[in-house]
Amino acid sequence: MALNIMTASELVATHLNGTLASKLSIEDDPSIWSIAVLIPVSLYICADPNIGLAPVLLTRILVILAMNFVQKEAVNCFPPWFLLGYQMALQVVMIGAYNFRNIKCDKWSDLGWWLLYMTPVWIAQLITSLFAFKAASVSTIQIIRSILPLMAFAMEKTLYGNPSTVSVSLMASMVMVIAGTTLYGYTSASVTAAALMWIFINSVFTVMATVFRAKFMKNKDFTVSMPLCMTSVSTTAIPIICIAAALTGEAQTWGSVLADTSPTAWFWASMSALVAGCFSFLQFRSQKILSGTSDLMFQNCVKVFIIIMGIMAFGDSFTAESVVGSIVALCGCAWYGYCRIGKEIKEEKTEQPDLKEPLIAVEQKTER
Question: Crossing angle of helices 108-135/80-99, nearest 10°?
Fold first, then answer.
């Protein structure tokens, strides 16, 4: 018994010949421009600190779904280093344009340490993410990445001794995640050795980036504003990306990419950059309301919607066994988050915002 059982080669053929995503064209389907609506909506929400939790999280769900969709389309149209450099350049322009009032730094040494730690890890995280999207289905990436909280737990426990105690429930939830992920990986045709390798490597760098970023953000003496953190890393990354492309020989193909790529492909690449920038805005905006663990729980819930989108848009396939594995992994991940929330909610005061001013400055009009 199977649900849409396919081999790996059939998955590729189906993507090229019949899935919803493969049929979209900017010339024939002007409705795909609706994705762009998320950009001004996200920026508006981030500009107004009085907007409540529900609109923020709803918009974030839509942005996460759109980000996974356009990213999958973009990686099928562009070489990875070119796409990453293009995305970084657009994000620098967008973040700089909407946050220039908040680009601040009191101590340049803080900026130097930030770039030293974050730039290489940030580049590694993003480029391995693109390779993972090339090698695996959207659903596979989400399910295998269920191990992320466990990897973060291992790093935080080793480096910082957090959490101080480990309950039986927490251990059981981690075993459940590992068992479900293993079952899915063993029974799913879309989990190739290359896909598993890129997802795992990307997970390692994602955890490293998260831990390093948290270290800086929780330091009360850190003087670099959030917009400057985002733009400085992206700006520093661009020349390194160009060097990497030259060393790998990819840069030799950039001329044909610029000349031969279709308008629809450029649309996907542009949207992948801008929507990812909006995702960063909304992530920091959510941190003003949610604790870190609550935010993790939210991301786990969104995975279900992403998997549904992968099935409908890209024809992601599941056997009966892989369905069971994915459910076990996601439930274990949710259980893990619940166990952590019970402890952290006593230690964290989420009423205190992480950002002292809106990500995007809004001029208030006064009545005369």
Answer: 140
